[in-house]
Amino acid sequence: xxxxxxxxTVQDLLDFFPFRIDDFSRVxxxxxxxxxxxxxxxxxxxxxxxxxxxxxxALRVGISDGTGTCYLVWYNMVYMAKQFYxxxxxxxxxxxxxxxxSWELAHPRWEQTGEFxxxxxxxxxxxxxxxxxxSMISRIVREALDTYGHLIDECLPEPIRRRQGLLSQKxxxxxxxxxxxxxxxxxxxxxxxxxxxxxLQFALLLMKSQNExxxxxxxxxxxxxPQAFIExxxxxxxxxxxxxxxxxxxxxxSGRTMNRxxxxxxxxxxxxxxxxxxxxxxxxxxxAAFLAPTEVLARQxxxxxxxxxxxxARVGLLSGSQSAQEKRITLERLAEGLIDxxxxxxxxxxxxxxxxxxxxxxxxxxHRFGVRQRLRLSxxxxxxxxxxxxxxxxxxxxxxxxxxxxxLSVIDELPQGRKRVYTKVFEERSRHLAxxxxxxxxxMGHQAYVVCPVIRQSKSGRRSxxxxxxxxxxxxxxxxxxxxxxxxxxxxxxxxxxxxxxEGKVQVLVATTVIExxxxxxxxxxxxxxxAESFGLATLHQLRGRVGRGSKQSYCFMIFSxxxxxxxxxxxxxxxxxxxxxxxxxxxxxxxxxxxxxxxQHGVSEINIQDLGVTQDILYSARQEAKALVDAIxxxxxxxxxxxxxLSIVNARFGNLLQHARSR
Length: 664
Ligand code: ADP
Ligand code: MG
Hints:
The chain is α/β, with parallel strands linked by helices. It is built from 23 helices and 22 strands. It binds adenosine-5'-diphosphate (ADP) and magnesium ion.
């Protein structure tokens, strides 16, 4: 069950941080209770009784503190009755409700006051999973801390810790899981967040410094093939595309390795730039790789690249869903140099893939990969040149943090003739208006997406893909071909569902965010996003980018099912905001930088870093400290001994950077 949460070792367990704490340490008087509040109450047991309830029997324990009375209630757990007796001193916490003409706390946490110190009632709250709730996780983590806590090593250099006012590593782990008070919890969070960002920065900056000192590579000289490709296009490049290509050409001509990040909003035409780069490698006698985050996208790119490069290059596809036979043939041809450009998924990263002379790797939709994968790719492939592309615009301040080892190009201009996607937020009760538009669009021969936040019905009450699929098929969209796509389907079924939509056999595709990345269906003019408040602005913007890819007027409807006016306003902002960089800036201001790490930037701790509440201040100071350390290493030309614990952690996390440094 822990493995389902990504926890496989004791270290993983310690790194599984609670995302918040509930502070029950302040006891409230019973006369001051208000319904719906989470409270801690204390008093003496005045009655213990078993009463009938709708679902069986309930245990009611009355307590009084002299100012009032309140009942602790357990349904169908009457066997607990023997734990209580009149006069017993209790403290209990939970949500208080006014029921049966008295105050009730259903299934509260409780303790006998003798044991109550006021401290045990700061409750860490963990992301739970089926069969494993937050308090069970808390117990397991405490046990691990008791048993293995003495093995926790310090890893940040002492002067950095002192300058930044951070806890020791051991104190930090103890206080994030079992805080003495709220302040200590905050301090532990800051310490651990700093550490995460620092490791990342240190790895990236070390990488950059190594790249800069890497052996020279043969400069590319022949650009006639990519030029011919550009001339064969039915459209003219935008200024931003041209500028980016010029920047890449300079890199490739320089005799130094290219490590470039290309950021461009959805639909800005990054693929053309990718293909130009792939062909530049081919023209200069190298093989090139085009790496996509999903099967669907790999196939789509394969088709696009084949279409674009007809007669210019030999293109192959490698994807996880191919038969062993197909894969073997592709790999053989690759090793013999009979394939110039290989398009594929992460299957290309596996060690059994041998290249005849790999020269350049383009990674699409980088935000779907972790930093670790990116670094691994760069040194395992031994490809001198790397271009990574991302359609998630990231504010510049953050881009240098997350991609500190890369040079940056930006495509900040859309091809001409694109219409803005008409964007509107609907309240739950106006939801039908969105589907009426879907019906109209379908009647006009267009297609639509419907996106839901979860696959299956759950306690959260958010609309699920399965539920909406059934509802639409039998309701609003009866008679329309509706498809279903989500990440829990077998890979082939998912690919098939997408394919049918791409081919126009299916008019409306109900899906989770599996459709978020790169899928390009020009005929799709409408997207409805259910439970839109569950998504970050950047994701919503990405989803919106699935429509409006042709010249037809397109629509994006976000269904707001939340409660707070604040989160409704957050969505409303998208009605008038159409540029990805502005969306990203707004997201950064509203929710802090943590979520950008959540875009799988980070490998191991990608779940946790969000829960640590990374702030801009932490980003900044961690980067400063990492930079100073890497500068010192560079200046002295060696790695000081006292850094070895730090280096072994960084190496374990991001692959063996130092070994790589030597081999280069
Ligand atoms: P993204 O940056 O989101 O990956 P794509 O590369 O998929 O965008 O491009 C979106 C669409 O725009 C594609 O159909 C592509 O052929 C087209 N396109 C790219 N560049 C231009 C251009 N300069 N003028 C017109 N259309 C273009
Ligand atoms: Mg793309």
